[in-house]
Amino acid sequence: MPRPYFLHRVLSVSVGLAAACMSLPTFADMPIAVTFPANSVWAQEVGNLTRSDDSLDYTVAVAAGKTLQLNLLSRNPNVFFKVTDQSDGKVVLDTRKTGESTWSTPNATATTYAIRVYIDSAALKFDNTAKFALQIGQYGAEDLQSPATAVTFEPGEPWAQRDGVLDAGAPVYNFTVAIAAGMTIKVNLVSSNPELHFRVSDQTHDKKLVDTSATGANTWSESVAEATNYAIQVYADPAAMPSGQKARFTLQVGQYASGDIQPAKPATVPTAAPKAGLAHR
After folding, report:
1. CA 266 to each of CA 150, 159, 177, 196, 212: distance values in angstroms, whole numbers, following the listed order
2. pLDDT by residue (tens digit) across 86-142?
């Protein structure tokens, strides 16, 4: 699923003096309202902190049902960020206390957050500058869908196998498979990451069949009475995947005549990257 993840822009607010003996009152810097580019769930704000300007403020409105994710990138270990939920005025995070550089939270209702990126001015020499990039993500399950990859079977082969990679920016990988009447479908998920699961739905009859996050299993099967198209989603909770972490997996889909002995599963060899043409972006 192509998505432009990051938007680079630098905004500054300046205070000026009127001319000819007439001065205007000085206003405090207003927070920068974060906006997202079209077709993107990510924005990025870049800034500089100094001894005299030791903080920058942002606000971001997050819709109901969306997850807010913040990543702070800086070479200076003394740059932190603080998050306040403006609906109740409570500080929900201060990374100076927690040591985090990435953080996320789901939102059941629409919420606006105030974000302050700051530095202890005593940690900077007088003429030094601490540069940073604040990455802001706002996403829901519907924003992170990948195009569906069709699973097909080679002649005489009861199993098809597909490799893929998930990360926090794209935690869902979609597949479709058509199974003929009188067959049994079998799905296995192989991954070293326990946070990966799969769900299966019957597209022909518009019915949800299984979600392995609830069953705790990494395998599922059923007999197919009539020809059916299935949708299979391999997924992970974005909040459980730190920024930059990738989770590799292999999806095995089998079909064999109902009543027959299940054929041996294909050998699975850990791969360094997904097969050509199967990348999720």
Report:
1. 19, 7, 18, 20, 21
2. 999 999 999 999 998 989 898 989 999 999 999 987 878 777 889 999 999 988 866
- Closest C-alpha to 200, from 190, 212, 191, 192: 212
The position carrying tokens 């990257």 is: 273
Helix (H, G, I), strand (E, B) or coil at 9: strand
Query: What is d(CA 196, CA 190) in angstroms, rounded to the nearest whole number?
Result: 9
Full-model pTM: 0.50
Strand 159-167, strand 246-257: pairing: antiparallel
* DSSP 3-state of 142: helix
Distance CA(199)–CA(178), nearest Å, equals 16
- Sheet strands (E) in 154-245: 159-167, 172-179, 183-190, 196-202, 207-211, 219-223, 228-236
SS3 of the chain: helix, strand, coil, percent, to 5: 5, 45, 45
Residue 263 structure tokens: 């054929």
